[in-house]
Hints:
The protein is mainly β. Helices cover 0% and strands 48% of the residues.
Amino acid sequence: QVQLVESGGGLVQAGGSLRLSCAASGRTFSSYAMGWFRQAPGKEREFVAAIRWNIGSTYVADSVKGRFTISRDNAKKTAYLQMSSLAPEDTAVYYCAATEKVYSSDYYYSSDLPYDSWGQGTQVTVSS
């Protein structure tokens, strides 16, 4: 199991950008696949993006494709979510998650079921 601490959320105007960070500790960070999810008030948790231990392998939800980028720095034991062209519908609590499970396709990381560890969440609010 790995412990995750998120930061970087806040209030931003529509069209602006934010960069979320997820700092990991507890075990070898590079062995974990990382995911970002979000949950808006009154809605179900939604997949945003995932990245394997191989930093060249990513999977991004259609709703944010072209606007959000997931990355990681294994030396710093940190995962990132770079968000641009933000809109009010992006307002949510954003969570990072980690798993040691390995799948044959990146698609399977879009479910929350594989993830064993979750961060506390960070609020992102986009004003119109």
